[in-house]
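During data preparation, we tokenized the protein backbone, and the record follows.
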Amino acid sequence: MDIQKAREMADSMGLDLVEISPDAKPPVCKILDFGKYRFEQAKRLKESKKKQKVILTKEIRLRPKIEEHDYNTKLKQAIGFLEKGYKVKVTIRFKGRELAHTDIGREIIERFINDVSEYGVPDYKPKFESRVIVTIISPKNKKNK
């Protein structure tokens, strides 16, 4: 249909001529109430957002030379986060000459993963990225306990 004729039809009905897919040959247009159309789109978007579950991530930072009491405190924090349903990002940061002993950091993070294994599972094996070893631990499902 000719564009001018379509515009006249839309005006006579008191509606708008809306281009639906401009890339198509020929472009596809619809005659509709644009305000109502936008309202319904916003309503659909709002409904879809209601059904989404937002998963937050908490971070626990460790050091290669961490003392036992500090380690246990961080462990209790991580277990608390996992019980509440948060994901926990565990990082071990190396400074200066500590970088020569990355094996100590790997042992600590493996120990940490084993200690929280009752409450969560790691998403991936610990990765070494520049001066940091990182892993993310997801909470176990309530059904699996």
About this structure: The mean pLDDT is 87. Residues 57-139 form a domain with the Translation Initiation Factor IF3 fold (CATH 3.30.110.10).
